[in-house]
């Protein structure tokens, strides 16, 4: 799923290499490359990139389109807000009370 973002434009306007942005954001160069190509990334990664580019979280729409601030802040606090599939283990009969 391609996402609209201005990461490359902002990075180049600041005369910053992909490696420098990756280092400041504590992510890999490959991650920066994928994001600049429009691939999706975790909210925590978006938060790191926004801050590494010198923006405040409230200015997120200048870097990434339509990323709710609550999601970015939640990611900063380690809360998961993604709707990814989670495997749920079914309990076996052991340890369950019989009605």
UniProtKB/TrEMBL annotation:
Family annotation (CDD domains): HTH_XRE
Instruction: Say which domain of life the source belongs to.
Output: Bacteria
A Pfam family reported for this protein in Swiss-Prot or TrEMBL: HTH_3
Q: Which SMART domains match?
A: HTH_XRE
User: Which parts pass through the membrane?
Assistant: none
Ranges of compositional bias, category Basic residues:
82-99
Return the annotated region ranges for Disordered: 74-99
The UniProt entry, under InterPro entries, shows: Cro/C1-type_HTH (IPR001387), Lambda_DNA-bd_dom_sf (IPR010982)
Residue span, HTH cro/C1-type domain: 7-60
Q: Note the Gene3D superfamilies from the entry.
A: lambda repressor-like DNA-binding domains
Q: Which named protein is this?
A: Helix-turn-helix motif protein
């Amino acid at each position: 799923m391609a996402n609209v973002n201005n990461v490359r434009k902002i990075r180049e306007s600041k005369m910053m290499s992909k490696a420098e942005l990756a280092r400041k954001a504590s992510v890999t160069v490959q991650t920066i490359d994928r994001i600049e190509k429009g691939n999706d990334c975790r909210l925590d990664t978006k938060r790191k990139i926004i801050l590494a580019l010198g923006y405040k979280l409230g200015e997120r729409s200048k870097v990434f389109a339509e990323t709710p601030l609550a999601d970015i802040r939640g990611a900063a606090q380690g809360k998961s807000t993604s709707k990814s599939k989670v495997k749920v283990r079914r309990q076996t009969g052991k340890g369950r009370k019989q009605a």
